Automatic annotation (TrEMBL):
<feature type="region of interest" description="Disordered">
    <location>
        <begin position="1"/>
        <end position="35"/>
    </location>
</feature>
<dbReference type="InterPro" id="IPR002159">
    <property type="entry name" value="CD36_fam"/>
</dbReference>
<keyword id="KW-0812">Transmembrane</keyword>
<dbReference type="Pfam" id="PF01130">
    <property type="entry name" value="CD36"/>
</dbReference>
<keyword id="KW-1003">Cell membrane</keyword>
<feature type="compositionally biased region" description="Low complexity">
    <location>
        <begin position="26"/>
        <end position="35"/>
    </location>
</feature>
<keyword id="KW-0472">Membrane</keyword>
<keyword id="KW-1133">Transmembrane helix</keyword>
<feature type="compositionally biased region" description="Basic and acidic residues">
    <location>
        <begin position="1"/>
        <end position="11"/>
    </location>
</feature>
<feature type="transmembrane region" description="Helical">
    <location>
        <begin position="72"/>
        <end position="95"/>
    </location>
</feature>
<keyword id="KW-0325">Glycoprotein</keyword>
<dbReference type="GO" id="GO:0005044">
    <property type="term" value="F:scavenger receptor activity"/>
</dbReference>
<dbReference type="GO" id="GO:0005737">
    <property type="term" value="C:cytoplasm"/>
</dbReference>
<dbReference type="GO" id="GO:0005886">
    <property type="term" value="C:plasma membrane"/>
</dbReference>
<comment type="similarity">
    <text>Belongs to the CD36 family.</text>
</comment>
<protein>
    <submittedName>
        <fullName>Scavenger receptor class B member 1-like</fullName>
    </submittedName>
</protein>
<feature type="transmembrane region" description="Helical">
    <location>
        <begin position="490"/>
        <end position="516"/>
    </location>
</feature>
Length: 560
């Protein structure tokens, strides 16, 4: 009985254990086990991925930091640093500028010049014309009125690049009136010389008898006066006379224009085809110098066999040559003056923290040349300080000078009174950055005068004005600074870039030397370690061999 009870209990416990096993095998417990398995697999996979990523990083790091790569980088950095010391980034920029590639900043700035040039015009009012014609005053007296301010707009178009490393384009200049900057009433009247009549008489003073007879008839018919009253606007833009208009209708070949307005004549034909030098083959000194003007190398209107002056080597004033020195002479071409104007180094100065050079127009620019090659003289000869400009104005008797006859060989009261020459107000100069040839400020001041020849063959009132030079007006072309983007670019290129390039080049050199030195030191250290290991192993091998021989010897002796 006791055995049966025990057997029953054992069966119960067995069944209980079986039930508990059944409960463990239910679906919930199975899913838990599967999730735990998934989690374990995920963790293992993540750990494996991390390990693989670390391995790849270590491999890349090992590749990047390998001795061969370090050696290549070291040599490359040293070569780059030496090259940057020899050929600096500034040299590269100046060389690239020579090509004038469309889309690059130098070309874009030139193709659309900034509106920075102001034209200030001053006219002369005659105050004693009646007394002068009556013989009460020996000389005319003039007073200056102005300025009348315009913006001179410059347009570049029709650009084409030639095979001989030159660039041809069309340059057009025209003025735009600026009412906000003007205090002069253009409707105000002034007394001025009758430029059309006096100019035609002076132009034809050596004409034949028939031509002079026609002119006398016109004078008798219209009875013009040597001095007239006109508005300032008409004097500048619409100045004519019935005698001039009739003369042009009768003999248009002798009288090419009927409107003698001062600015009207200056800007009547100011669309010019220019050809300039570009490209590395010309070098920095000849960059953007004029090679042809309207297809010709000489100044327009002059005979190349008589006048040795050539227009090539000059500049229109927008861009100058690069790498200028204090010994360089800048040739400035302005059709208004009809001659090349030389500028010489004057002083060093700083504007906007940029070191600059100032070049002044020679005070002898209008003097006579004594070697027989004076292209700007007339017959009879002009006074020093005057330059013939008639070749650019249909042979009309016009001469150029400094404003108020400043400097030159003309005393200020030689022809008229009332002039007040002042070096500060009447000289011309350009201030530019010498490496890039960028003009920061430029002022060109010129005076136009009427040259009156001997008029004794006409009425007495005209004869009184004979053999004189009458100031008509003078103009100032002033480039007032630069746009901020150009100024900042020049500042960075000249002031910031050179020391910055030295720092970068020096840093590259030091890093290259460091990499090579480190590599050499590491190789020497590895060689020493290898030698030590080989020596240690060889010593161990010898000791082991000695021990083996000793053991074999001892065994042999015992056996014996």
């Amino acid at each position: 009985m006791s055995s049966e009870k025990i057997l029953h209990e054992d069966n119960g416990s067995s069944s209980g254990s079986l039930r508990s096993d059944d409960s463990d095998s239910n679906p919930d417990s199975a899913s838990d086990s599967l999730n735990s398995l998934y989690k374990t697999n995920d963790n293992t996979c993540a750990e494996n991925c991390i390990e693989e990523t670390k391995c790849e990083v270590n491999k890349k790091r090992g590749t990047c930091c390998s001795p061969v790569v370090q050696c290549v980088w070291g040599v490359l950095l040293i070569l780059l640093s030496i090259g940057s010391f020899i050929f600096t980034p500034l040299d590269f920029m100046l060389l690239e500028k020579l090509n004038m590639r469309p889309g690059m900043p130098p070309y874009e700035w030139w193709s659309d010049p900034p509106d920075e040039v102001k034209l200030r015009t001053y006219v002369f009012n005659v105050t004693n014309h009646e007394r002068f014609l009556l013989g009460l005053d020996q000389k005319l007296n003039v007073e200056e009125i102005g300025p009348i301010v315009y913006l001179e707009k410059l347009l570049h178009s029709n650009v084409r690049f030639n095979e001989n490393s030159t660039m041809t384009y069309t340059a057009k200049r025209f003025p735009i009136y600026l009412p906000d900057l003007n205090n002069i009433d253009l409707n105000a009247t002034i007394i001025v010389p009758n430029v059309g009549v006096l100019g035609i008489f002076s132009y034809l003073h050596n004409a034949n008898y028939f031509v002079k007879t026609v002119l006398r008839s016109l004078v008798s018919m219209y009875n013009p006066e040597p001095f007239v009253q006109v508005s300032i606007y008409d004097y500048l833009w619409n100045f004519t006379d019935p005698v001039l208009e009739m003369s042009r209708s009768l003999v248009p070949g002798l009288v090419p224009v009927s409107n003698t307005g001062m600015l009207a004549r200056v800007y009547a034909d100011f669309t010019d085809e220019m050809t300039v030098k570009i490209g590395p083959q010309w070098g920095h000194k000849e960059f953007f110098q004029i090679d042809r003007f309207r297809g010709q190398p000489q100044i327009p209107g002059f005979d190349p066999d008589v006048c040795p002056d050539r227009i090539f080597g000059s500049t229109e004033g927008v861009m100058y040559a690069q790498r200028l020195t204090k010994q360089d002479v800048l040739q400035y071409w302005r059709k208004t003056v009809c001659k090349l104007m030389p500028l010489y180094f004057d002083s060093e100065l700083t504007m906007f923290n940029v070191p600059l050079y100032r070049y002044n127009l020679s005070e002898n620019a209008f003097d006579r040349v004594t070697n027989g090659t004076d292209c700007y003289d007339t017959v009879p000869s002009l006074h020093p300080g005057l330059s013939d400009t008639s070749k650019c104005y249909f042979d009309f008797p016009m001469v150029a000078s400094f404003p108020h006859f400043y400097t030159g060989g003309i005393p200020k009261d030689k022809f008229v009174t009332g002039l007040k020459p002042d070096r500060y107000k009447h000289n011309s100069f350009v201030i530019l950055e010498p490496y890039t040839g960028t003009p920061f400020e430029a002022v060109a001041r010129m005076q136009s005068n009427l040259l009156v020849h001997d008029l004794t063959g006409f009425q007495e009132k005209f004869a009184n004005v004979s053999n004189s030079v009458i100031p008509l007006f003078w103009a100032e072309y002033h480039q007032e600074g630069l746009p901020s983007k150009i100024r900042k670019t020049v500042y960075f290129s000249i002031v910031i870039l050179p020391p910055l390039s030295i720092i970068i080049s020096t840093t590259m050199l030091l890093i290259g030397i460091y990499l090579l030195t480190k590599l050499i030191y590491s190789n020497n250290l590895e060689n020493d370690s290898l030698k030590s290991i080989l020596i240690f192993k060889s010593k161990n091998n010898i000791a082991n061999k000695n021990k083996m021989l000793a053991f074999e010897k001892e065994t042999f002796l015992k056996t014996s």
